[in-house]
Amino acid sequence: MKTNIYGAFSLRAPLNEDETLLAKSHGVVFLCDPQGNDWYGLLKQFSDETVKIAFDESGLINSASYDASTMWPQSFSVAEVSDCPDTFLSQPGGGKWVFDGESIVARVLSAAELTEQAKATRDALLAEASQKISPLQDAKELDIATDDELSQLREWMLYRVQLSRIDPTLAPDITWPEIPA
Prior knowledge:
Layout lengths: L3 E3 L3 E2 L5 H10 L4 E2 L6 H5 L7 E5 L5 E5 L11 E5 L15 E3 L4 E3 L4 H31 L5 H18 L17
Antiparallel strand pairs: 1-6, 2-3, 4-5, 4-6, 7-8
Helix pairs in contact: 3-4
């Protein structure tokens, strides 16, 4: 089956008299693509057997469904595809998939994106470690820490030091330290 592609969809104007009434009375919004395809008109043409995907100008897939009426493609293009990877429908969004003009493929992150993700992960883990360390450190400084708390403090401090030594530019080849129990 041929892949049908429409979009990018934008607000349609001018509206006829009935559409203007619907827009004013019920807040209905009308969309069309640059070829003049009306979104509501296209809904009737889509097959129930195909996956419909909404994607941006770079091909990044924003949403997917067998039922196009569940989608709102304003500022997105839409493709109707008959074949998709097995794992795609269980995780269609989240920046993990792209449409290459013919098929759905797993997105390959750039080195800069991998570095940014690693930095964000490291920073979040460092913040969590600091939260765990703070009350344990207080107990130690107040000389009321139990042996168990002192042991936990040492493990969390060691973990935090290990995290601080992570070089995000090595992503995806990073061995993350184990989170203390």
